[in-house]
Specification:
Layout (H helix, E strand, L loop, with lengths): L1 H28 L2 H8 L3 H7 L3 H10 L13 H15 L4 H11 L11 H19 L9 H23 L4 H16 L2 H4 L8 H13 L1
């Protein structure tokens, strides 16, 4: 059992180190030696978990969607809003998430790494929530869940890239608030709009409530 726990901790340390290095240098410029130095593990330990640089990058990519986990909400539109703000807030400091996001949009990521997988995972999760929102009467009859999700995921991707380039994502919460101000009136029933919270500090408040619940 102790050996298994050590293996889990080692794997996590490697992933977090790789995320940081991929975020700082991109796929092409990242070397296994850089990851080893950052993770402070042996080459044998790294290759035990990840047989190649490509497999390591894929594992980092696959870690992205769980960072959007938020407490379930009775209103599924609010739950979706919370997911976007929590990811935005975590992008400010979480190196593994930042590395995963960079790999997903890095055009130099090789074909052997499926950098489309996080987009498909986000689309699946968000479409499911929007279908629930529609079943609960939260959506306008004209709102198409699949098309809305594709717009949302694409817009979030572009907004966080722009925010990173201009302010190192410091203004990402504000930009997400503006995004939702444009999207919500076109998909949510009018009576629900006033109750939805898409203020810029929503991510920080949701994460704070999670920390309080854990403690």
């Amino acid at each position: 059992m102790a050996q298994q726990e050590r293996a889990i901790r080692t794997r996590r340390a490697i992933l977090e180190a790789a995320g940081a290095v991929f975020d700082e240098h991109g796929y092409t410029s990242t070397t296994i030696a850089m990851v080893l130095e950052r993770a402070e593990v042996t080459k044998g330990a790294l290759y035990f978990h990840f047989p190649s640089k490509e497999s390591l990058a894929q594992a980092v990519l696959n870690e992205q969607v769980p960072f959007g986990a938020v407490p379930p909400q009775p209103c599924k539109l609010q739950e979706i809003i919370d997911m976007t703000f929590v990811v935005g807030q975590r992008l400010l400091s979480n190196s593994l998430l930042r590395g995963s996001v960079r790999l997903a949009v890095d055009q130099e990521t090789p074909s052997g790494v499926d950098h489309g997988e996080p987009f498909r995972q986000w689309a699946h999760r968000l479409t499911s929530l929007l279908e629930q929102a529609r079943a609960q009467g939260e959506l306008l009859p004209t709102a198409n869940p699949r098309e809305t999700v594709e717009l949302l995921v694409g817009a979030f991707t572009g907004i966080q890239l722009m925010s990173r380039a201009l302010t190192n994502r410091v203004d990402l919460g504000h930009r997400l608030s503006v995004l939702w101000a444009h999207i919500l009136p076109s998909i949510a029933v009018p009576g629900l709009l006033i109750a939805l919270d898409s203020r810029a500090d929503r991510g920080a408040r949701v994460l704070e409530s999670l920390e309080v619940a854990v403690s």
